[in-house]
User: Fold these one by one.
Assistant:
Number 1:
Amino acid sequence: MRESELNPFLQGNFAPWRLEGTADDLQVSGEIPLELNGTFYRNGPNPAYEPIGRYHWFDGDGMIHAITLGDGRASYRNRWVRSAGMLEERKAGKALYKGLLEMSVTEAPVFKNTGNTNIVSHAGKLLALMEAALPTQLRHCTLETLGEFDFEGKLTTAMTAHPKIDPESGELLFFASSPVPPYLVYHVANRDGELVRSEPIDLEWPSMIHDFAITKDYVVFILCPLVFSFEALATTGSAFVWEPQRGTRLGVMPRNGGNGDVRWFETDACYIFHPMNAYSEGRHVVLDVARFPRLLLMARDQAPGSGQDFIDDAPKLHRFRLDLRDGNVKSEPQDDRRCEFPRIDERLLGRKHRFGYVASGGSETARRDVPELTAVTKYDLETGKPTVREFGAGNGVGEPLFVPRYGQAEEDDGYVLVLAYDRAKNSSDFYILDARNIAAQPIAVVHIPNRVPYGFHGNWVTAS
Ligand SMILES: [Fe+2]
């Protein structure tokens, strides 16, 4: 059988959407607020061809879905990230590159820079990101691929898909993680987009470090016991091994410090793809995350896809409180709901946030083999109170983005934007929710003319 008939990450709304298109004046239920003037960009894996061998959700070619709002109207455009590898495959009319589950020690790894994970705008550049390679620059609005971007030749490593833009300085803080030394390099680009700093950071073991956190004063690196191992690749075929006895380490480095200043805090084994945010509070660094109790990233013999059980080993909202005076870590579960894709009001990135927005859920009947989350939850971290909006079984949602109503609006005074699949219609809707009451009637629902496959991350870019 073909992989697409076996693998749940190639089926339902995980299946790729292979048309590119543009649609103006989308049908809208309700009214789009006039203050919403900009574009919601969303990236995700969308394989252009039937995969060679086994498929991992992280493998697919990047596709950007862009919803532009202005004057109360909405338009849609989707385009592939046209990587050099994908263009070769287009010529051949078939897949040429193997994925993560087909890595082998006997063949040199040849990766396609799919640019499939996130899309950010900094210093006038729109960058599609995937963590094993350079950013891919796209043109705003048209989504035309301009090619790989290496900061004028200064970036000699890959770039995480989760850079942070400091809301005050406008700096772009990021890192590169690699299975071969240097395992971690910290980078800073100034507000004009010039790479001004690259600092190798020593790690105890090579891992997959997907994201990190910043505060006004510190960066926080997250080293989980998902260990890269050539030996394991040779013997089991899986390049990453879960070794919980190592525990998880959180490395706190002053933003103006270097490798020698990193202080590592130890906590129980867990995996963290995504922090919600971090901030400094007195002698503490507070770090909120979506915490997996363990991660089977490539247990490829267990099940098609990844082998992870997304119910038993579901991520949940968790707070770490790191005491910079005595080195202790308080590890505090925040809720029992499954959650991923945590976001905050980006104006508070690295500063104390009260509210967070996550994809969450869902029902007892939710699937175990894929991370399909069918609710949006807003957390009030001061009162501990969650507010939940359910979309119904099979109607998975993406990462919720908060957009303030206007520049100086208070935290939570704005909109939560989220894409949701409608299984009955087999198409997707773009919800504009009142952040202060996400469970109420939506302010507007924009009906996308097609299905937007489940994907990863995106950002809102205000029209200039
Ligand atoms: Fe991510």
Number 2:
Amino acid sequence: MLEQLKKWDLAKSNYEALKQVETKELNVNGAKFIVQFNPARIVSSGAKVDAKSIRDRACFLCEENRPKLQKGLDFGEHYTILINPFPIFPKHFTIVDVKHVPQLIAGRFGDMLDLAEYMDDYVIFYNGPKCGASAPDHAHFQAGNRGFLPIEKGWKNHIVVKKDENLSLINYGFPAFVIEALSKKRCICLFEKIYEALPVKEGDTEPKMNILTWCEAKHFTAVIIPRAKHRPDCFFAKGDENILISPASVDLGGVFITPLEKDFEKITIKNVAKVLKEVCLSEKEYYDIIKNLAG
Ligand SMILES: [Zn+2]
């Protein structure tokens, strides 16, 4: 895979640029957030993901449209692991279904765990079709090297309630569920319960969510973040109020991506807290869901 970074100029220059990327740290409600000024990510943060724009473009995850230099590695029966040419992590991959089928998590959470086990130096993450996926029409996950996202270690300091040994409720500036188990079966069973308890909004194909998962010494951890909406008000605001930020798993995992320098300079703790509040669930919505969790 690394051979590609020598030959593929776009990926090579973006990975080189990442080494000099500017960051700053913000403490939001006791949780660590890093803001990363990453101009190459404008392709994702600014991506048009409305149905018409998606229909009118050639899918960049389909094999026939991918750059010839982007060579894949097969995984399982129907996935290909690719280098992500627009990295946030020093090591960043996209894992795509070989078929052009819609981004949906139903029936794929187990695949995420399989990936987490296979790529145990990586956090595997999923952005729902209306929660940051820039290809909502083509099923995919991403993988970024571990030790990069603050939530990976930080979530334990934000446990609100431990429902049982396998399920914790956390508040990381937003409410979320954390599943921990040695058994994949147990993880899948808990995930399915959460999935069933989450509301599906009109016009959506699944409950809005982001998922991050990793595996250490055969022990799985999965953070499930239910979402209220995709983009915050500041994304659409005009003038000084405008901040181009389109939160997905990585941002909620503690690395906020700002593709524009003006936003990197001005973004404050207050802005981040407001974005988290807007795009994630309110406490009331969260506790209503918990009431729906069977067993
Ligand atoms: Zn496709």
Number 3:
Amino acid sequence: MTPPCPRCRLPAPTRFTVRGHDIHRCDRCDLEFVWPTPSPEALASVYTSGYFQGGGAGYDDYFTREREQVARKSRARLSALKELGVTRGRLFDLGCAAGYFLGHARDAGFTVAGAEPSPEALSAMDPSLRASVVPSLEALPDEARFEVITAWDVLEHLPDPDATLRSLRARLTPDGVLAVVIPVIGSSTTRLAPALWDQYKPPEHLWFWSARAMRSLLSDHGLRVLREDVAWSRPSRFVDPDGTSRAPLVRLARSIDALAHRAITAVAGPQLVTDSVAFYARAERP
Ligand SMILES: [Zn+2]
């Protein structure tokens, strides 16, 4: 059976199958999604103990190896907010994991809060942050509003990102800013060899948008995109995906890959080699 696209209601046929899950695609709006939707039990089992340090689904070692990466990304994201004139106020981070970004945002002058369901992540969190973190968006007090809401690498994991965006939008102050990072489709890998793209990883990732599709979705929720940054871009998945091998031939192939990456970017623009994008969008007054 062909399900309808959740956004345009047009039939969205299967594009390919990965890890036993069908990825469906709507050619009209560039939305791709896993269907049938995995059961709540299957989704919950992805995030059991080990997600952040297991090396299976999720992260090899989020709490040590990823920490420096998060610091680098946090600096870039806070400086993007600063360039948009957003330097103070209440900031809410959905899916805040161990709170590393929240710590950087607090240091930068924001009053921070977050939501994180994983007990594993919460137990690794700085105790001074833990009191401002709730287990879910729904657990926030009714009156809680924020000048900034962030969701880094979160929307693609959620069973109903449209409903989550509606809730987030309702929590923004007038002129508030929502910032999200998602993996984007549209690169040469997602077009030509989708099974090789490591972001097609159901049931952990359930939704895949092109940059155009994400702009439309944000616009549907009264959010106007102010800025887009390439969050992550790698030449290919063909050689040494971790970038850690020291074997001479692999290093040579990696250098060729890197040159090709630069050449493609120079000639065709970044979209053919972009893996994920940060979107910063402002709430429009109704
Ligand atoms: Zn559609």
